[in-house]
Amino acid sequence: MEAGAIKKTIVLKGIGVSPGIVNGRAYLFNCQDLPTTYYKLDTKVLVSKEVKRFRNALKASSRELLEIKERISRKEGIEPLFVDIHIMILKDKMFIRETVENIRERRVNAEWALKLTLVKYRDIFKKMGDEYIRERINDVEYVSERILRNLSGKSCEKISDIEEEVIIIARDLSPADTIQINTEKVLGFATDIGGKTSHTAIVARSMEIPAVVGLERVARQIQTGDHVIIDGTAGVVIINPDPEILKRYEDKKKHYQIMAKNLIRNAALPAVTRDNYRVEIGANIEFVEEIPSAVSHGTDGVGLYRTEFIYVNKEQLPTEEEHFLNYKRVVSDPGLKWATIRTFDLGGDKFVSDPRLAEEMNPAMGLRAIRFCLREVDLFKVQLRAILRASIHGKTKILFPMISGVAEIREAKKILCDVKEELRNEGVPIDENIEIGIMIEVPSAVMMADKLAEEVDFFSIGTNDLIQYSLAIDRVNERVTYLYEPLHPAILRLIKHVVDAGHDAGIKIAMCGEMAGEPFYSLILLGLGIDELSMTPLAIPRMKNIIRAATLKESKNLLDTVMSFSMVKEIEEYVRSYMVKRFPEDFPINNASYR
Question: What single DSSP character describes residue 503?
């Protein structure tokens, strides 16, 4: 290309994982994948040397991560949780044993043996139904990449050394890379791979760095020095924008910054409509480290604490004390009015430390969640004991997942009663009046909602699974995701049935799926009578702002109108049009993203 030639503007669509708009010069963070060498080992002596070389690479990798952890720990307000996860994987006995056995039995070099281990892990994770758990393979890959670099003796550039204002472009960033970013220099980042629930995405949101992932080829399409716009809200990356686009995004950025500042300033205000209807707002979290962000964004409490992370990537099952310390940190946080702890939504597909458990044909509908708990009672009791022990340190609620009928909740309650009695006999103090709730996420629970409501203190509607099970949609199958429609009239009727049944029995109804945090759905959810909405922390200020500007009466009128439609397209178009006209500041037409 001739000097001074105008470069073509390219617009790429990925997954927006951390909101905000930035523009600046690109910096290609060049940490290339290492080619995996292969060679056979002819003698036992060479095999022994190769095992030693692998173990030395493990030690070197562990030292590097400990240095990163120490460096991060000196930063105020940042805890190196994700580094701990990678250190834990490095020490995982199954991971080490599998690689060493590949070296010894196949007589191959350490790099190739590690690759074979990674292939096996990928097969295990691929079968998992839960997106969050499935994306934990990324952490195993990050650790493997670090080991490979130490085997090869080749180092990777340090992201913490960047000393100029740039937007980072990379094939991928590990959580350890992301958490070391100097936010005064790095404006945002875009990567080829990644998803909303990856640890890198979670770190980006906690640090409030605009980010787009899952762009597939961005690292090949952008060169260092290119002008780039990152729109982490819409999931858009624009390479070499023309003056018109640049002006439009500058205006958009100013609008976003003003709106974000106003939203944060008012975030602590309650979500009360103009006609005095109050909705409790909770945050969905996976890690204790997410609580400060949730509180600063205006959460009332934790509406859903997912506890699966405590189990994943561990050779040994977590102890009662490990559970207790996690739960105590959540429920005792002074910024939270309550915390709802969901018992583990795990099954054979998620206990990756034992791949023999991951062989179900359809793990999403297999032995998981409450079904697994009721079969593995001793495992279940360990978690329940820890939750009850933590309950005296702050308002705590227990949430049982994937309940499909009355028999399951009664059996779960019996086990809970047994655990309470054990703790009383041991003289351990607990909250005797701890509230019990169930997830409504399968159609049978919807149809039995009136009977189930007699058994519990609250419902929490898990729309992610409820929608996919009700509409027969595999959310992770790209060929049918277009059919995943939260405003489908059947879904609205199912939700209304649950709310009516719960309210008739005098219990509160929460919603904790992705639908709960979508501002376009806010009035529909108000009209349905949801008492509590729980969402990702960054969605809270905008949702609360809309609720405060609305009335319950208009929400019910909107719901009555859309319930008369028979096609989802009619509902979506009507709701979109209504919300854009009704709340122009929250839904500027050029910036509106829907679903």
Answer: H
8 Å CB contact between 526 and 550: yes
Candidates 31, 323, 373, 512; catalytic one: 512
The residue type at 88: M
What predicted TM-score, i.e. pTM, was given to this entire model? 0.72
Measured distance CA(499)–CA(526) in Å, rounded: 11
Contacts 24+ apart (CB under 8 A), 586-590: 586/259, 586/519, 586/542, 586/545, 586/546, 587/519, 587/520, 588/252, 588/255, 590/248, 590/252
Are 545 and 448 in a shared domain?
yes
Is pLDDT larger for residue 569 or for residue 594? 569
86, 199, 297, 323: which is the annotated catalytic residue? 199
Residue 361 has pLDDT above 80, yes or no: no
Neighbours of 275 (CB within 10 A): 11
Element (H, E) at 132: helix 131-134
- Mark whether 388 and 423 lie in a shared domain: yes
According to DSSP, the β-strands at 458-461 and 166-170 are unpaired
- Residue 220 has a CB neighbour count (10 Å cut-off) of 11
**Burial zone of 235 (CB within 10 Å; 0-12 exposed, 13-18 middle, 19+ buried):** buried
Residue partners of 287: CB distance under 8 A and separation at least 6: 81, 202, 309
CA distance 313 to 354: 10
Q: What are the φ and ψ backbone dihedral angles of 143, each rounded to 5 degrees?
A: -65, -40
Q: Tokens at residue 525, please? A: 């959810």
Give the structural domain span for 98.
44-152
CATH number for 451:
3.20.20.60
Residue whose pair of structure tokens reads 């009128």 in the numeric block: 557
Q: What is the pLDDT of residue 585?
A: 81
Is residue 199 annotated as part of the catalytic site, yes or no? Answer: yes
Q: How many CA atoms lie within 13 A of 502 on its CB side?
A: 28
Note whether 469 and 490 are within 8 A (CB): no
Q: Are residues 349 and 477 in the same domain?
A: yes
Q: Given this model, what pLDDT does residue 592 score?
A: 42
More confident residue, 50 or 180: 50
Give the C-alpha separation, 198 to 178, whole Å: 12
What does the buried/exposed string (b/e) look like for 277-309 if buried means 16 or more CB atoms within 10 Å of the residue's CB?
Answer: bebbbbbbbbbbbbbebbbbbbbbbbbbbbbbb
Contact 333, 319 (CB under 8 A): no
Q: Domain count of the chain?
A: 3
Query: Looking at 102, 124, 152, which one is the last position of a domain?
Result: 152
Nearest to 231 by CA among 167, 146, 299: 167
The answer to whether the CB of 95 falls within 8 A of the CB of 118 is no
